[in-house]
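@channel sequence for tomorrow's demo:
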Amino acid sequence: MADRAATSRPASIGVKQLAEVVVVRHGETSWNASHIIQGQMDPELNEIGRSQARVVARRLSREAKPAAVYSSDLRRASETAQIIATACGVSNLVFDPALRERHMGDLHGLVFDDAVRRNPEIFSWNGRNQEIPGGGESLDQLSQRCVSYLNTVAEKHKGERVIVVTHGASTEELCLHADPTSPVRGKLFNTSICLFRIGGGEWILEKAGDVAHLGQGGFLEDAFGGDGASA
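structure tokens (generated this afternoon):
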């Protein structure tokens, strides 16, 4: 997905007040490869996922050094984050359940296509407030959780660069919060990069779904973009 033009920045918000937030989706798991809904289940990275994590880490290590790396505490994200933090020479590594994937309730462990056939209303854009049976979250609840956390991170890191490692649906909601017209649904591959500038209530999405590093590693052909629920 090509870089996106930044929206206009209010005069009251200078560059020094904005945090540069690099959001990375975790590497692949065997559940991703089989299109099984993971949600808040906790499979680890497979070998392809670990290779993807090393490739994106190498890319990020060549860019500006981040002040911190924040990550979901689920293993597929935390392992990706640890690889990135090591490559970037960052000791400030924070794991937080606020960055977890959407809780999918009774749909955990189902093949995605089967879940859609059984519960089409849950996966509809018109069902954003639809909670999932079995304690699952609505998209609105997921958005509120993730946006609130990134606002807190941005407030702490004004004028700094940070990396956030999270999940497919979580990242989609962040992109849509910044730009409701962003065509990201189902298009954020494992270890894709989205770039935000956040501060003072302003969200600017500068880049979405960047996978240039994956092309260099030969991963794109088999990459699973996810669709939110299965990330």
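heads up for whoever presents: The first helix runs from residue 30 to 33.
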